[in-house]
Amino acid sequence: MDSKLKSRSRAALALSIASAALLTGCGSGSSAPAAKDDGQPIEVWARAGTDAATSYSALFKEFTAKTGVQVNFQGVPDLDQQLQTRAASKKLPDIVINDSAALGNYTSQGYLQKIDKSSVAGNDAIPDSLWKETQGLDGSTYGVPFSRQTMVTLIRKDWREKLGLPVPKTQEDLAKLAAAFATQDPDGNGQADTYGMTVPGSTERGYFGWWASSYLWQDGGAYLKDDGNGKYSASASGAQAGVTWIKQQFCTPGNTQPGALTAATSAATPFFQTGKTGIILTGPYNFSSFDASLGKDKYEVIETPKGSKDNTVLAEGENIYVTATNGKKDQTKQVIDFLVSPDGQKAGMTAGKQPIVRVPVNSGVDAAAVYNDPRWTVVQDALKNSSKSFPSAINFVPIKQAAAEALNKIASDCAADNIASGLKDLDTAINNELTSQNAKS
Amino acid sequence: MTTAPTKPARSLTRAPDSGQAPARRKLRNSKQLLAIWLFLVPAAVLGLYFKFIPMVEGIRLSFFKVQPFLGDVFVGLDNYVSVLTDSRFMEALGHTVVLGVTQTLGALVVGFALALLLEGQARSLWILRTTIFLPVVTALAVVGEIWRILYFPTADGPLNSILGWLGLGPMQFLNGTDTALWSIAVVGIWSGAPYNMVIILAGLTGVDRSLYESAGVDGASIWQRLRYITLPALRPSLIIVLTLAAIRSLRSFTEVYVLTGGGPAGSTEVWMTRMYSLGFQRNDIGVASAAAVLLLVVTLLLTVGTQLLGKRKAAR
Hints:
Oligomer: heterodimer
Strand content of chain A: 5-15%
Order of helices and strands of chain B: HHEEHHHHHHHHHHHH
CATH topology of the largest domain in chain A: D-Maltodextrin-Binding Protein, domain 2
CATH superfamily of the largest domain in chain B: MetI-like
Distance between the termini of chain A: 69 Å
Largest sheet of chain A: 7 strands, mixed
Largest interface: A-B, 49 and 42 residues
Number of helices of chain B: 14
CATH class of the largest domain in chain B: Mainly Alpha
CATH architecture of the largest domain in chain B: Orthogonal Bundle
Radius of gyration of chain B: 26 Å
Strand order of the largest sheet of chain B: 1-2
Low-confidence stretches of chain B: 1-18
Number of helices of chain A: 17
Number of domains of chain B: 2
């Protein structure tokens, strides 16, 4: 190639790069953008699969019919990833409905607007304990409670009755029942192919830490301690009793399903669904799929068995978040007021195939009555009397992850006496994380 | 080597208008150039958008605390320091190297053996080769799920029941801390070996048959023929296979993610799964990008290294 040709090709290359860069329009400002009203219908995102998304759509259809306010709703299964993309373009959806646990992460990223609690119509119908869960580290309110639920213990009723065993009242009973399911052939097919509990023991997305938290609380332990004023400290070392019980389940062959230590919920739940295990601690959102696959009469929802302290179970839920780029004040208020009103909450429980409001946050609505299903009474009672949630002001995801990793390590080595040392390591990991989040006392 | 046969048009046109019109030639040249570039633009833009811009962006992000909404904060080499001082990353590195070496060598040996067994023109061989190649074209996520079933850790699991016939006790496979990594390596070898087989098969067709015959006349054993004829002739293919396999093993993610998710007790966590959980589960994009850049550098060094090694050996 002669030099002219060379320089020309260079010029062409530069030109094509320049034009491409122009198309990208890469601009990256350094401060958070201001709220603006673009005159479009209010954009609402929720973390929802296909079924839940249909329910949301039906709910907002009702809202539009009532108020005349148009809503642009999107059900997004991988909400957090998609939010990051929108955050990069500095234009978040106006309202986001997602886990109450997302609050810490969202506030630290600057995604959210403060909410004036008193401006929400019917705010006094929502219990104070729920409002408290929407506070950030600075004590301001950053979300509106929308739906709550607790974990519930489900048992294969037909198996239990066939073996002539009582409904378990304590953790000991539960372990015995699990062992009986594993050894006494409750499905009567003559083969040792049934197991006790379904456990998502994988570290993936912190599943193990999530599942184990209820049992830890029941024996008086906890991953961390709330020291007030938005400060926390690790306390896993005090959870030896609960962890010992959990380890026993993993180290008694058959008490948990095979492969539990590497199973996320997607791999674990089918064991209960297909009649391979007889006990599962899960959310009430699984009722409908279990009714379809097992049959409503085959399993029972029991009051959670007691540990050495009480029968606390994990409570979770969804909040309504108003994003920092939302400039549609009136429409936002209308959407929020509707979603937490008795009508809105009822619609969330009945519209579409899957309830998006599990247990209503509005104390004027009775879940068991709306669903006409006594199983929801168990959930509602547990929520009211014996439930606890992860702190939402901090980003709890890394702590759940650290807990899952520590517990996975402890449970995978049955021969070793590793509970005390493993939990001490977990304390260190949690404290480091708290320090990096500026929330260590 | 002569260029004449490949460029007949040029040498034909050059003779008549040599003195007359350099301007016209220039015009034609630039037209030709324009056409070349026009044809190149779609691919170039696609490459730019989906390969080079993301790559440069990844390198940029590795120096920042990434907060897409509030604006990124420059942190210098902090992200690299936290990757290199993180004990979990170092453990993951160890697992990655073990997995990489096992998978690479395993897939090479098995691929070589398969190629030797299945070399030939017969139709039956052709069908067999296609069958054996199937794992390569199957989605790795599907392969993972199938192996998860095969590895079911009770006595009635498919692999364990075969072991049971041989009188061996049920193995934990993916569920045991000391067997999980090897179980994943086996899946990697199973799905990687057929690819190597194809490349080595191509190399085998280039071996001069008469060399075998003369070696046979000289009384060389099968092993000697393999050692002194086949292997040297296959050097270029083997280098390609090694390079590709090494890169692939360093990046192994899907099989680990699907089979164990890094567990039990972190015993199968590799560089990529650690990177993924930091980037997408903890939203720590900066540190994850730093880890990705380090992986890129290592891959680059490895590739260049193998190439140089191959060249030097070939020159000797």
